[in-house]
Design a protein that fits this description.
By secondary structure, the protein is α/β, with parallel strands linked by helices. It has one domain: Alpha/Beta hydrolase fold, catalytic domain (Rossmann fold, 3-Layer(aba) Sandwich). The chain is built from 10 helices and 8 strands. An 8-stranded mixed sheet has the order 1-2-4-3-5-6-7-8, sandwiched between helices. The chain is globular.
Length: about 325
């Protein structure tokens, strides 16, 4: 179905900025190089990061982290672990600094963005374990960085949003670290989307930027030889989690034309049914990565809502 006429007019130019790539036919190095060119349109960070190496909590190598410290730290505030997007197979903290830097500058809390290892070279559970290790490290820095560890949240976009949701489940299952909130931007949650097993099949979603074919590639790369037959399946694909209770409050923002629209709404519904507070926002005419056009009115509304939610989630504990 041709959906270009449904795309918000101010957002539409992004379609040509992100040219369609056949992920199945191109070498992964070429895919990543092309993605890096595309990500170069993002604005520079408003805060320069500290580049650190942090230890793995799962026996892996040290993990690179970019730490963004605000000029003035919010008293009694928390911290944010940010996880970048890229379909599980591309992207990096180096290429995607604008978002976490803006989170730090706006909320007044430190933000750590983690350079998790990418699939297909590093399939499940490696990316999840890298993100969990970064969370463990960040929680241990509460005194040194001057934040309240009980106000620490996870945030991410697309694949990063999916990994943030998985990390919330993983941290619950492993007994910590405690997470006060999930900030999920069009999160990649359901490995079935776009496959023969897809439970949604919405004809107006997924034509641009991240397509059904792209999604099949990304999930196949992440899965590797994992059989999805044990209690970790919710860590792999959060939509598969049988139990969503006792998870932190979630802020979910998605686009009405995004491939992930239906899985995002379904996940929000299931969180609510499990007793988890959810703040859900859908933006009409928005495709995947729509906020890469920062001056569009739609993007500004999205950014305002996201930053307000981040400030609320990381703010000093009530009472």
């Amino acid at each position: 179905m041709d959906t270009r006429h449904l795309v918000d007019r101010e957002i539409a130019p992004i379609i040509d900025l992100f040219p369609r790539v056949d992920l199945d036919s191109a070498p992964i190095a070429q895919i990543r190089a092309k993605a890096a060119e595309t990500y170069s349109i993002l604005p520079p960070p408003v805060i320069a990061p500290e580049r650190l190496l942090v230890p793995s909590a799962h026996g892996g190598p040290d993990i690179p982290v970019f730490l963004y410290r605000p000029a003035e730290t919010r008293e009694g505030g928390g911290a944010i672990l940010h996880i970048h997007g890229g379909g599980m197979v591309m992207g990096s903290v180096e290429q995607m600094q604008a978002g976490p830097a803006m989170l730090a500058a706006t909320t007044g809390v430190p933000v750590a963005s983690v350079e998790y290892r990418l699939a297909p070279e590093n399939p499940f559970p490696v990316p999840q374990e890298d993100c969990h290790s970064a969370l463990v490290w960040l929680a241990g820095q509460a005194d040194a960085l001057g934040f309240d560890a009980s106000r620490m949240i996870v945030a991410g976009e697309s694949a990063g949003g999916g990994l943030a949701a998985a990390l919330a489940i993983m941290a619950r299952d492993l007994g910590g670290p405690a997470i006060a909130g999930q900030l999920l931007t069009y999160p990649m949650l359901d490995h079935r989307t776009g496959s023969d097993a897809c439970p949604y099949n919405n004809p107006t979603t997924g034509e641009f930027i991240w397509t059904r074919a792209s999604n099949r590639f990304g999930w196949r790369a992440l899965q590797g030889d994992y059989r999805i037959d044990d209690d970790r399946r919710g860590w792999f694909s959060p939509s598969l989690a049988d139990d969503l209770s006792n998870l932190p409050p979630a802020y979910i923002a998605t686009g009405s034309l995004d491939l992930f629209f239906d899985e995002n709404l379904d996940y929000a519904r299931r969180l609510v049914a499990a007793g988890v507070p959810v703040d859900l926002h859908s933006y009409a005419g928005a495709i995947h990565a729509f906020n890469a056009i920062p001056d569009a009115a739609l993007s500004q509304r999205f950014n305002d809502g996201l930053l307000a939610a981040a400030a609320m989630m990381t703010g000093p504990a009530a009472g």
